Amino acid sequence: MFGKAIAILLSFGIMATALLATRQKRYEVASKISRSHWRLMEQQRDLMRSRALVATKVRPDAIRLALNSMNIKWRPIPHRLDAPAPPTQPRLATKPGVKDAEAIPVEFGG
User: 53 in a domain, yes or no?
Assistant: First the structure.
């Protein structure tokens, strides 16, 4: 009986120690994530400050003036993501029964 009580108390002690170790590890990980997030936010703030500084120092009219003074033919950047898409040609409806070569076939019913 005494041996069983010692074994139970010892197992409870081991479980409590494991629980405390797990909880401490969780707190350390949360702290590490918080510090990483803080560093990331600081880097983003520094980046925004740098972008604002560059934007105040570089004016479009000054860039155009510098490019014109070089006497070089400059071309726009191809495949820009902010360039507007070219307009598409509208397609007219056809008469019923007339097949359109470009039309996608649609079947109704089951």
Answer: yes
Report the C-alpha gap between 38 and 68 in whole angstroms.
45
pTM score: 0.46
Does residue 60 form part of some domain? yes
Q: Residue 61: pLDDT band by 50, 70, 90 thresholds? A: confident
Q: How many other CB atoms are there within 10 angstroms of residue 106's CB atom?
A: 5
| Spatial CA neighbour of 38 closest among 26, 49, 50, 30 | 30
Residue numbers of the domain that contains 52 = 2-69
